[in-house]
Structure formats: C-alpha cells, structure tokens
Automatic annotation (TrEMBL), chains A, B, C, D, E, F, G, H, I, J:
It comes from the Bacteria. This is Muconolactone Delta-isomerase. Pathway: Aromatic compound metabolism; beta-ketoadipate pathway; 5-oxo-4,5-dihydro-2-furylacetate from catechol: step 3/3. One of its GO terms (molecular function) is muconolactone delta-isomerase activity. Belongs to the muconolactone Delta-isomerase family. The gene is catC. Residues 1-89 form the Muconolactone isomerase domain. Homodecamer. It is an enzyme of class 5 (isomerase). Its EC number is 5.3.3.4. The keyword Secreted does not apply. Gene3D superfamilies: Dimeric alpha+beta barrel.
C-alpha cells in the first residue's frame, strides 16, 4: 500500500546550532536508511519551504508509522498523510 | 521541472447524469492523452475522496497550466500546486 | 487495514423532495450492503449534525475507495479519511 | 453515551529527554488504567502522526472530562470531541 | 446532559420568497414545540448574523439529534455541537 | 447585555508546577468573585478540552472586558466573544 | 454601545441582472435610512473586494440585529461582528 | 501606491458555454483596457489554477476598487488585497 | 488614505512581569505619540480579547508601516491590514 | 521561471536583542546578495506586517530553494510559494 506524506518542519527556537546540526545529521541517516530499504520511494523537497513530500510503499499502516515516527524531527513536524490507490483514468498498471 | 498537484473535484449539483457521464468521459480521454505524452507521470486516486494527487514533469510553468487547464473539470476543481526539487537527504539522483 | 472516515453531507438545494427521498433510500441500501459484508464495521451518527463517523476494515485502499465511492451521496459529501494502526499504549491486541 | 475523541500531541520543545520519557510512561499507565476500567473502548494510533483517535463509553460528560483531563499530556494536546449516537442506516443494534 | 449548539443558516438562493416564508414558519413552530417540551432551554440570536446559539438538556445524544434534525432548515445549516459539564470553578451546583 | 464567551486555555510549557498551581488558584478565586457578583451567569467546562463556555450579563462592553481581562490566564487564552440578543422564535421573554 | 461589522457579499449566481439591480437599489435605500438615523456611523468599502467594514452605535444588541438583518442582502452575506470598547491607551475620551 | 491582488475565479455552474465565452471575452477586454492605461502593471497566471496574481499602481484605494470592481467576473472571484511599500532590505529605489 | 488594522497580541510566555510592564508602558507611549500626531484616528479595544481595531489615516503605505512597526509589541502581534475607501452607499462625504 | 513568494516572519521570543540585531543584519546582507545577482527581482514589504512579497526569476526549483533557504530567518518564516506563468489576457510579452 502506498501513502503520500507531507511533512512541515518547525525547528524549536531554543535549540543550539550544535543540537540542530546533530539532529539534522541523524535525520538524514534515518531517512536514508529507510530509502535504502526500498520502503521510502520518493523524498522530494518543497521548493522554498522547510517541507518535504514523500511517497512510501509499506506493508501496513503500522509500518508507515514505524518509519515516520523513527525520524528524530517527528515530534516537531506537522504531518499530512494521504492513502492513495489506483485511479480509474491512470494508464499505468502500477502505482509506482 | 516537477510539480505535485492535488485536485479536489466538486461536481455541480445541477448537472444531469448524461452531462456528468459525458464530461467524465472527456476528462478521462484528456488526462490519458497527457499521460501518454509522458508529461503526466503519476495519477493517483486519494482513497475515499473525489480527489487525485498527480505528479507532472513539464518544460515550464506554462506547460503545467496548459495541461491542467485543458481538463474539462478544471473550473470545478479546487487545486493545490506544489513545485518540488531534489531533497538533500534523497539517495536517488533523479526526482522520478 | 482499518480506516476511520468522517463524512459531512451537503444536500443539493435544487433537489426535489422526491429525489432526496429516492437517493436517501438508495444510500441506506448501499451502506447496509457494505455493513452486511462485514467490511463497514461501525456507522455512527454525529449527534446534531448531518455527518457520520465510520470505521471500515478493508483489504486495500482500493477497496476502501470502492465502498465509499459507491454511495449515491459520495459526490455531495466532504470526506476526511484517517488510516489507523495499533497504538503502543493500547491494551487490546486487535484494532476491532 | 459514546464519544469519539481525536488527540494531537504537541511535545514542549524545552522538555528534556528524561522528562519526556517520564511523562510518556505516566501517560501510558494512565491511559491503560482507563482502558482496563472498560470506559476507554478503543485507542488507535493515527498512522504517521503524533495523534490518536479514541472511543470512550462513559456515564456522563463529566466522566469523559475526568478521564481525558487526567492524562499527563492533557495540557499539551489539541483535542476534538465528537458526541455520537445510533445512525438510522446502521444495522448493528448497539454502538459498540 | 447539556449541549451548546451553534447553528449558522445558509438560505438556498433558489428558494422563492413563498417557500422561504413557509419553511421559516415551520422552523418557528418546530423550535417552539421543543422549547415548550423543556428540552430546548435557551435559543439566542447571534447579534448581526443569521445564526443562533442554543442550550439543550436532553436524555441522550440520540435525543439531541432527534431535536436538531427535526428542524426544516437542518440540511441548510452549518452546526457546531459542544458537550458541556460542570466546571471545577463554577459556584452554581447545577448547569442550568 | 449578554455575551457568550468561549475560552481555550494554552498553558505555557515553561511554567513550573508551582507557578501553574498558583495561577490556577488565583484564576479560580477571580472567576468565583465575578460569579458571586452576579455578572458571570454560567461557567461551563467543555467536556474533554481545556476550554470553557461562559455566559455573562454586563452593563457594557467595557465591563465585559474588565471581567475577562482580570483573569490571570487571560494572556494565555484564545477567546471567542459572541454578542447575543432575543431570538424571534424564543418563547422565553428574557435571555436568562 | 459600538460594534465593528465586516460584511462580505456573495451574489447568488442565479439572479438576473434585473433582480440584482433591484435588490442593490433597495440595499442602498435601506443602509442610507440607517445612516441618516445616526445609528450607522461609518460605511467603508474594502478596496478591491465586495465587502464593507461598518461602525454602528446602537442602544442594544437587539438594535444591531434589527439594522443588519433588515438589509435585503443579509441572507447572502458572510458577517463578522466585533463588540468594541475604550482602549486603555486611547487618548480620545469617546469611541466616536 | 502599489497593491498586490490575488484573484481566484469561481465560474457559476449554471452559466451556459455561450454566457461564459461572452463574459470571458469582456473580462479580457476590461483587463486589457486597464493594463493599457498603465495602472495594471502585471497580470500573472497562477500555474495550474484558475487564479491570477496582479500588481497595480494606483492613485488611491478608490481607484484600485474602481478597476477591480469593473471586471465582469468581480462578483464571482475570491479576492485578496495586499498593500505594499518599500522594504528596508530592497536595493531597488522604486517598487516597480 | 485610510486603513483599518486589527492587532492580536500574543505575550511571550518567557517574559518576566517586569519586562512585560516595561514594554507595555513603552507600547502605550508609542501609540499615544502617533494618536497625538493625528495619524492614528481610532484605537478601540476588542471587548474580551487581547486585541485592538485601529483606524489610521496616513500619507502612504510606507507611513502606515512606519507607525505599526514602531510599536514594541509589533513582532508579537498577528496583524490584519485592510485598505478602505468610500462606499457608494455612504452618505458621509468623507471617510472620517 | 518566475515565483511569487510570501514570507511571514515569526521572531523567536527567546532571542536577545543582540542576536536579533545580528541575524537581521545577516538577513539583509543575504537578501541583497541575491538581489544584486539579478535573481531576486522584487522585495516588497507588506504594509503593517512583518512580511514580504517577493518575485524571483530562477533557472530551476532547486535554485529557488537554494536562495530562500539561505536566509538566516528561513527556519522562522511561514512561506507561501506560487509558480506563475503568462496570463492569456496579459498585454506584456514578458513576465517581468
């Protein structure tokens, strides 16, 4: 099953530059681990905003939550989750 | 350049079933023409809603508008357009 | 997989009482067919509003869309879809 | 009487990891006490978000408030409360 | 149990003056029947708006829905329902 | 003149438990003083939320502001003020 | 007592030009009657929008509602009502 | 003085294709007259939406309203008006 | 030219009482300076909220910004600016 | 390609005046560098608000993001990005 997830990041104002750099590095490592696993299919930057739009193919809603909630910035993001399926007008036989 | 476009359809209440069927057929034909052209990369149904999330790769903002505004339901959709680019944490070298 | 779906109905003002009665009857028949199938687990009325909150257990997002979009009032509802999963604090072993 | 309650958690940015772990543990203990009492019927995680959707069966609005406001994270949650009742199209004779 | 209900009326533009006068008269009759029954405790006009704020004391959520949905303008109102209970700082021993 | 006022409390995350307890006690004392004066007619808890709905009968908008702004939590509340008057369909001759 | 009222007009699409012209003329006559009475102190056009911001000084909330609801376009306007009073920093001794 | 104006068009569903074509032609004529006058500096299409962002330099708010309200689609547009001025960080000495 | 400006104040939670008292005093001094200058025509308190509605008559948008941004609480206010002009139905020949 | 970008600044309440002055100076330097490069065509202050509306002409969405995200206040701004193109009614042959 495939989800489109939009994440808006809100960096806490009290974080030091060191803490921000540290968490940003861990965030990168974490998201790349999931991309490498083949679950996190697309990670796109929204041009001009501290946001991303992602496409994930997972085995279950539980797995989607496991991936997203493992991100160090998870508690500081505003997240919109959309469950998608095949459109009757789509000419592709698969979603991805 | 790549855009993510979310379209929510609001069917006019005064349309007859014939008119709705006719426009729906033209909508399908139109969207499939653009998918076949290779510009409209993904057309996903939002599960449970009269909405789609689409991914288009176009040469210019003008071309994006040409495609979306050619849809017969264009005047009756609420549309959100997001311009995307490569995310620094993405492991794929290309957007699509 | 389980979804919580909230549907707000907006009755078209140009419908005659006959048309409204006819579609309401078909809506009832349709929703009861899906409840009888075991897919539509809960159908709750929001007290004081022309809305319902429903819980559906389906095999795929496609099936969720098939069910919701088969409702005669589907084009006239504002629909919010939420994909749910097991909560770490839940003491029940199953969602339903 | 039955309520559907949606809770979005906003973790204060100034909390230490120890404080967060401590309050999270107390939150779990508190919510499980109410689940064991039979009042808190369902506790579902919203997939991909720091939110839950819950279903509670209580004797009164006072009791609903007693339960929700006893949660340690209560002051830091955005909460939507919906009072539900039997839907005329429902085939089940009871809400739960 | 007591509810505060805010109702915003949206008069359909296609109604004739006769139809509007007829439904308005029936709306008055209906709301006064419920007020006389002692269930609909307060019916207040929001100054300057086509809206009311009402306070109802009912035996169940089902009864609240029965009352509100019996109003002829029910399908054309935007309705907000709030379930209330005793406030710890209140000096009155009863809600009404 | 009568106002319906809805107040949503947002407790500052940096307050110690002592400060919160202290201000909560002062809040109670302040609101009860105004209730005893006969100006603050109803103080209802919104079930499941850190909010109240209140009904105040005052001599002027100035007096309403004097009362609400004297609450210690005033700067930390999101407040909605509604001026109400007699509804043409109301059977009671007075608002309260 | 003084209110600031913002009114956004939504012209029904099914009105003929004659009906629109007729109601617009009556709207003008009605609003000018109230301005001449001295109750409707200011009537300002929002530049670039089909909206006005008005300032009314009335004897009661009932009188405010009597004035606003007498406008022929009243059912087709989205209206925001704000009750105002003297600001502690104001150097004028009166509101108007 | 300079304004940025965003206009979202909502085509009435009951208009015939002839009426829509007629009003669209008049809309074009009207907007081009104002562009030729030098008042309407920029008229940009929002890519993928039935919206425009415009920049107008006018002598007064009255003139802005005269221009925008002369558009045949004025009653059917949702309009956002922003008054702009020189930014302290701008290196250009003029706004346009 | 005349603007209606609505300002909602959000007091930072980390400010000491001394800092708040100091800035409040400077805010009063600043707003009274502009009122005395004749530019800031009306300063009204929104009854029951930490907000004001103001009317300013200025020579340019630059001057409006100079005045509003000189307020010490400027960075902590949510501000809505509306440019107004003469309404065709107004019987007064001037805005103020 | 051309974007219209609206940026609303939210100054962190815990910043000292020195830090704010330092970052404001760097913000100015950064934005002026991009203006001098010819990419950042317009930088307009929204009159009365801590916001700007900007117009940028860039080679790609990536370049837009590079510019906007290089601003020191980037993590503390709420940003709206709009991709624009030629309007069919525009008489200018170019966007800028």
């Amino acid at each position: 099953m495939v989800y489109v997830v939009e994440m808006d990041v809100h960096i806490p104002e009290t974080w030091s530059e060191e803490k921000l750099a540290d968490i940003t590095a861990k965030e990168k490592e974490c998201s790349q681990k999931w991309q490498s696993s083949g679950k996190w299919k697309h990670l796109w930057r929204v041009a001009g905003r501290f946001s991303n739009i992602s496409v994930l193919e997972v085995d279950s809603p539980e797995e989607l939550h496991q991936i997203i909630s493992s991100l160090p910035l998870f508690p500081y993001m505003n997240i919109k989750v959309t469950s998608i399926c095949k459109h009757p007008n789509a000419i592709r036989q698969t979603l991805l």
